[in-house]
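Late entry, evening session. Most of the bench is empty. Finally got around to the prediction I had been postponing all week. Sequence below, unchanged from the version circulated by S.P.
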Amino acid sequence: MPSITFICLFPDEMRHVFLKGILGKAQENGTINVTFVNARDFSEAPHHKVDDYPFGKKHGMLLRYDVLYNAITSVPNYKHATIIYTCPKGPHFNQAHAQEMADTLLPNPTSHPIIFICGYYEGIDERMFDTFKIQRYSVGDFVLSSGELPAMMMAEAAIRLLPGVVGKSASVAHDSIISGRLEEPYYTQPRESYGQHVPEVLLSGNHGKIDNWKTIESIRQTVFKKPSLLVKHPCNENEKLLVRELMKEN
């Protein structure tokens, strides 16, 4: 069974995230096995201390090399695992990276587990990178108090790409970042509320007009809210015409 292991300091709190929704169902049906290793269990220091001051710098704390080494080597099949560390020195994590992780987890002769190291404080001892082949990823240019949330974000992005996790595979294929176009606006009941109305075309029953409206609005959302997608996913001729018309309107 594909497996993901988090090496962290607060396993109970993190575990709850993976007990609900599609992540919980994925574990129940055996699609993925998510486990947590408490780094404190591998500390021989008083009070299970896992950090210490960096040499040559008497402020900030680092996770100790011996603690992390013992935590990683306790994970079954760790020698064949992809080890990931959330770190600002890494490339920005994107959908392509999520797909690579999902491909790594797929049950086949080349599949192997993933281990996430959740960073805390100033980071981890540099000797970890000399000992293990560790991939670094960043989720953005901002500061968090730990690497737990980034690690869980990356794991969810990969897990939902595994077959059977999301109910309809088309739902995954049509996600904005994958398809290269932002989705059109969505509306639900009531049809009118506090003076706000659902667009008439969506209530018309004319599927041709509805599909045309969806296409136009999808391009509109992409052009004005995330034009970078158009660079990665160039427009076809019909879309180019739509873009020109939209630009004239604005």
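Two things to note before I forget:
The first strand starts at residue 3 and ends at 8.
Strands lie at 3-8, 33-38, 51-52, 62-63, 82-86, 114-117, 123-124, 134-137, 192-193, 196-197.
Will write this up properly tomorrow.
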